[in-house]
């Protein structure tokens, strides 16, 4: 999975491309953990180019969100495709994670 | 349309192949893109469970995935030959918690109209998932 990381103001923007499943969840978790450990805990992830997320992928995002919140940051999401959004709704993560419609809105929310 | 079977080995890189094959099978059987996507997630979760739990991460072990059309539904089976599923260990997840794991089977149950498992075999588990065509789901299902 390709994961692009850029800085905008004090916010770190993470843009993965591909499917977030058992095969890529560890890579995602590792990338987010490294960012948080470097002090980049204000995170926005744009999921526009992710068409598939399964429970392993959700687990990686939840773990990173908890880790970021523990140090005063957060992992905010945006750009969820309809089928991906339905998985977040089904597991009720849509209620506990900060989900925005697009990148600008998510970055501005910091 | 006759039943079709895909045989993969127990590695996570095979999951993309399962999704592509299943999408093609379901499109040929007339399912729309949302139903295809839902079943790709459900079958992905069952296949992941086979890799992680039935084979405990061992690569190279067989997993069979089959798709069959019935008059009112599509029936998908995922079969492994490893450690059998232990229903006594299944816990319905508390969705008020932020779960890092343990929601895979819950997702499958939500996406399928019917989900059963067969443990009465020499080894492993055969999962059977039924998805009815819109408007044909029996009241009891």
Topology:
The complex is a heterodimer of chains A (110) and B (141).
Chain A: E1 2-8, E2 11-17, H1 25-37, E3 42-46, H2 55-70, E4 74-78, H3 82-90, H4 93-96, E5 98-100, H5 103-108
Parallel strand pairs in A: 2-3, 3-4, 4-5
Antiparallel strand pairs in A: 1-2
Helix pairs in contact in A: 1-2
Chain B: E1 4-9, H1 14-28, H2 33-54, E2 62-69, E3 73-80, H3 104-111, E4 114-118, E5 126-132
Antiparallel strand pairs in B: 1-2, 2-3, 3-5, 4-5
Helix pairs in contact in B: 1-2, 2-3
List keywords for this structure.
heterodimer, A: 5 helices, B: alpha+beta, Heat Shock Protein 90, five-stranded antiparallel beta sheet, 3 helices
What is the CATH superfamily of chain B?
Histidine kinase-like ATPase, C-terminal domain
Number of distinct beta strands of chain B: 5
Q: Please indicate the count of domains of chain B.
A: 1
Task: Name the pair of protein chains with the most residues at their interface, and give those residue counts.
Answer: A-B, 24 and 28 residues
How large a portion of the residues of chain B is in β-strands, by DSSP E?
Answer: 15-25%
Number of strands of chain A: 5
Mean pLDDT of chain A comes to 96
Task: Outline the structure in words.
The complex is a heterodimer of chains A (110) and B (141). Chain A has helices at 25-37, 55-70, 82-90, 93-96, 103-108; strands at residues 2-8, 11-17, 42-46, 74-78, 98-100. Chain A is of the alpha/beta class and 110 residues long. Chain A has a five-stranded mixed beta sheet with strand order 1-2-3-4-5. Chain A is globular, with a radius of gyration of 12 Å. Chain A starts with a strand and ends with a helix. The model of chain A has no long low-confidence stretch (mean pLDDT 96). Chain B has 141 residues and is α+β, with helices and mostly antiparallel strands. Chain B has one domain: 2-Layer Sandwich (Heat Shock Protein 90). Chain B is built from three helices and five strands, in the order E-H-H-E-E-H-E-E. Chain B is globular. Chain B starts with a strand and ends in a 9-residue tail after the last strand.
């Amino acid at each position: 999975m390709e994961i692009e990381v850029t800085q905008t103001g004090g916010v770190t923007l993470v843009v993965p491309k591909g499917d977030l499943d058992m095969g890529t969840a560890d890579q995602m978790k590792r990338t987010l953990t490294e960012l948080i450990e470097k002090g980049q805990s204000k995170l926005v992830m744009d999921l526009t180019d992710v068409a598939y997320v399964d429970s392993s992928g959700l687990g990686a995002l939840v773990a990173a969100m908890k880790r970021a919140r523990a140090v005063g940051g957060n992992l905010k999401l945006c750009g969820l495709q309809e089928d991906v959004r339905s998985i977040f709704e089904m597991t009720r993560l849509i209620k506990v994670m900060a989900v925005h419609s697009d990148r600008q809105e998510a970055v501005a929310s910091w | 349309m006759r039943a079709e079977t895909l045989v993969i080995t127990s590695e996570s890189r095979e999951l993309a192949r399962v999704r592509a094959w299943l999408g093609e099978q379901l499109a040929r059987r007339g399912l729309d893109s949302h139903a295809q996507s839902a079943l790709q997630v459900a079958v992905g979760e069952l296949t992941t469970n086979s890799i992680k739990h039935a084979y405990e991460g061992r690569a190279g072990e067989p997993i069979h995935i089959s798709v069959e059309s019935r008059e009112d539904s599509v029936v998908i089976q995922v079969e492994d030959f490893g450690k059998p599923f232990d229903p006594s260990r299944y816990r319905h997840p508390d969705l008020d918690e932020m779960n890092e794991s343990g929601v895979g089977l819950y997702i499958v149950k939500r996406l399928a109209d019917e989900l059963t498992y067969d443990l009465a075999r020499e080894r492993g588990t055969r999962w059977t998932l039924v998805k009815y065509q819109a408007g044909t789901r029996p009241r009891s299902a």
